[in-house]
Design goal:
Blueprint lengths: L1 H11 L16 E4 L1 H4 L15 H13 L9 E3 L25 H11 L3 E7 L16 H10 L4 E5 L5 H17 L5 E4 L1 H4 L9 H7 L2 E3 L8 H13 L1 H4 L8 E3 L12 H13 L4 E3 L8 H7 L2 H7 L8 E5 L4 E7 L5 E7 L6 E5 L10 E6 L5 E5 L4 E5 L4 E6 L14 H14 L1
Parallel strand pairs: 1-2, 1-8, 2-3, 3-4, 4-5, 5-6, 6-7
Antiparallel strand pairs: 9-10, 10-11, 11-16, 12-15, 13-14, 13-16
The structure holds 2-acetamido-2-deoxy-beta-D-glucopyranose (5 copies).
Length: 429
């Protein structure tokens, strides 16, 4: 009872305005340098991996030639440590001339010529986290203008070395300054991550009006512990976070680390599945030149990408936390469909979890089930007992189509309310 009321209230509060730049109506997808390549500027000893023009060109080539772009992975995003330590004589930021000999504008052109987009990074403080020139209040206009002149498509505004008062002024000011350039530039705000991610310090209505996405929580690392920590924080705070998300405005649990060193195949599927449930931006931070085929096939799974990119843009939720260590997640999707994820926190062996769709609050009917990672299809009546076998730290993910008899009022009980309300929200934005 209680649960349904909360969903209703949250769905209602989605009826607010999103940042009016027309961008990112579904979660943005692409590649971002930070987690994998950090602040490696040692091009002399590590030419292939240092933060340089050639790294971004290599990634762009892979995105364009290896099937990523067609799936939606179009942003190539620079993070910290790209700039010169000095502004130029007109006071503008400039790329490090040794590592980016062609400059950022040329790099943006390179992306655009291949149907890709370029993202860049700045920081609210006097210095970035890595110690490069920041974009404090008095530099906001000139830097926004510079990024627009370079034809940059996205801007991540970090918060190191700034205080709460400056952030309160700076994040909205940058939003205005980007808008004033006339160039649509996707805007990623790290603001909430610097304010603990929760109300009353964080005002998610305001964030949705000024930013396209925002980092709510700490940086991801290349480890399963880091993934678990992020999953726990986002789903423990889901009642606050779900209503904040919608077309043009997304919670960002940080980069995908699939294809790096820290995750098993099952754990990689878990990250992909739960990022899709969360309607999270999908920015890979990995080496696309050497990624193995198993990691690639998880990141290129069309069904999980389709779930992530669902046009209604309703963030999903955790609906069950069993004593056995099994957790169940659910996300409502367009066309009366939905996604379910069964996740195991266990460390022993595959766990056989028995349930029925009606126990998960699906209403009377016969549902078509697509298993996202095995490609198997089955039909299930709401009342039919079934058992899913979930690997340790792994998931089983299902796409569930509408019941076979659509006129019989047969869909997930909570679903009707979320759908009805979300249909109002895009129109009002
Ligand atoms: C199903 O709905 C009931 C009543 O609204 C609620 O108490 C229960 O938590 C829901 N269960 C799941 C798994 O969503
Ligand atoms: C700037 O904001 C106005 C009003 O919200 C909007 O109509 C316009 O599309 C925005 N322009 C850009 C480039 O974001
Ligand atoms: C924040 O930093 C500014 C300097 O940019 C300073 O004037 C102000 O007092 C600081 N505010 C707080 C609350 O520390
Ligand atoms: C949060 O932001 C919204 C939109 O900008 C504003 O209307 C509201 O008053 C703010 N809430 C608080 C508690 O400051
Ligand atoms: C969704 O379900 C409702 C209620 O059963 C039905 O009226 C509607 O036609 C369905 N929509 C789609 C796209 O199947």
């Amino acid at each position: 009872m209680h649960f349904t009321v909360i969903v209703f209230a949250s769905a209602l509060s989605v009826i607010t305005f999103a940042l009016d730049n027309g961008l990112m109506r579904t979660p943005p997808m692409g590649w971002l340098a930070w987690e994998r390549f950090r602040c490696d500027i040692d091009c002399e000893h590590d030419p292939k991996n240092c933060i340089s023009e050639s790294l971004f060109i290599d990634m762009a080539d892979r995105l364009a030639e290896d099937g990523w772009r067609e799936l939606g992975y179009v942003y190539v995003n620079i993070d910290d440590c790209w700039s010169s330590k000095e502004r130029d004589q007109q006071g503008r930021l400039q790329a490090d001339p040794k590592r980016f000999p062609g400059g950022i504008h040329k790099l943006a052109r390179y992306m655009h010529d291949r149907g890709l987009k370029l993202g860049i990074y700045g920081d609210m403080g006097t210095l970035t986290c890595g110690g490069y020139p920041g974009t404090p209040l008095d530099k906001i206009e000139i830097d926004a203008q510079t990024f627009a002149e370079w034809e940059v498509d996205m801007f991540k505004y970090d918060g190191c070395w700034s205080n709460a008062t400056e952030q309160e002024q700076g994040y909205p000011l940058m939003s205005k300054a980007l808008n004033a350039t006339g160039r649509p530039i996707g805007y990623s705000c790290s603001w909430p991550a610097y304010q603990g991610g929760l109300p009353p310090k964080v005002n998610y209505s305001q964030l949705g009006e000024i930013c396209n996405l925002w980092r709510n929580y700490g940086d991801i690392d290349d480890s399963w512990d880091s993934i678990l920590n992020i999953i726990d924080w986002f789903f423990e705070n889901q009642e606050v976070l779900i209503p904040a998300a919608g077309p043009g405005r997304w919670n960002d649990p940080d980069m995908l680390i699939i294809g790096d060193f820290g995750l098993s195949i099952d754990q990689s599927r878990t990250q992909m599945a739960l990022w899709a449930i969360m309607a999270a931006p999908l920015f890979m931070s990995n080496d696309l030149r050497t990624i193995n085929s198993r990691a690639r096939s998880i990141l290129q799974n069309k069904m999980v990408i389709g779930i992530n990119q669902d046009p209604m843009g309703i963030q999903g939720r955790r609906i069950l936390k069993e004593k056995s260590g099994i957790e169940v997640f659910w996300r409502p999707l367009s066309n009366n469909a939905s996604a379910l994820v069964f996740f195991s926190r266990r460390n022993d062996m595959p766990y056989r979890y028995p349930t029925t769709l009606s126990k998960l609050n699906y209403t009377t009917g016969s549902y078509k089930i697509f298993d996202v990672f095995t490609d198997k299809t089955t039909m299930l009546k709401d009342s039919t007992e079934f058992v899913v076998s979930v690997n340790p730290t792994g998931v089983v993910m299902w796409y569930i189509s509408a019941p076979a008899k659509p006129n019989h009022h047969q869909f997930y009980k909570q679903r009707e309310q979320s759908r009805t309300n979300s249909q109002k929200s895009p129109a009002s934005e």
